[in-house]
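Quick one, C-alpha cells below. Sequence please?
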C-alpha cells in the first residue's frame, strides 16, 4: 500500500471522527480497529523507508515520504487520543447523572427501610420511648 492510499484512508476515518456524537459504541470500536490497522501499515512503510535510507542511501527520493509518514503517524495518535478523551467525557457525564440519582434515592431508600418495618416493638422494651413509638413519626420525613 502506498503512502497516498494510507493518507486517503486516514482522511475518510478523520471525517468519521468529526461526526463523533452520532456514532454508536460498535462504530467507535470499528473506528479504533481501522486506526490501529492504518497505524501498523504506516509503521511498516516508515520502517521500509528507514531501511532504504540506511542501506541504499536514497535520501532525496524518500525524505518527502518519510516526513509524510511521520506526520501521518502523529495525526493517527492525535485521533486515537481524541477518541479516548471523548469516551472518557461520555463516561464522566454518565457518572455525573448516576451521582445525582443516587444522591436523591439513597436517603429515600434508607428512610423507607427504617419506617417501612411492620413491627410494633422492633426489639425495644414495652415501656420504652423513642421515634418508633411515635404515632406520626413519618411526618419527620417532610419537616
Amino acid at each position: 500500500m502506498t503512502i497516498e492510499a494510507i493518507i486517503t484512508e486516514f482522511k475518510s476515518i478523520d471525517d468519521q471522527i468529526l461526526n463523533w456524537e452520532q456514532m454508536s459504541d460498535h462504530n467507535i470500536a470499528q473506528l479504533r480497529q481501522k486506526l490501529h490497522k492504518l497505524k501498523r501499515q504506516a509503521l511498516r512503510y516508515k520502517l521500509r523507508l528507514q531501511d532504504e535510507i540506511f542501506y541504499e542511501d536514497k535520501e532525496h527520493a524518500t525524505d518527502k515520504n518519510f516526513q509524510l509518514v511521520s506526520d501521518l503517524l502523529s495525526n493517527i495518535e492525535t485521533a486515537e487520543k481524541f477518541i479516548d478523551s471523548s469516551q472518557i467525557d461520555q463516561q464522566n457525564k454518565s457518572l455525573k447523572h448516576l451521582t445525582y440519582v443516587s444522591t436523591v434515592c439513597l436517603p429515600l431508600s434508607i428512610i423507607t427501610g427504617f419506617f417501612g418495618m411492620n413491627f410494633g416493638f422492633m426489639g425495644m422494651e414495652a415501656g420504652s420511648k423513642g421515634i418508633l413509638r411515635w404515632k406520626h413519626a413519618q411526618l419527620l420525613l417532610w419537616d
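The chain has one domain: 3-114. Residues 3-114 form one domain.
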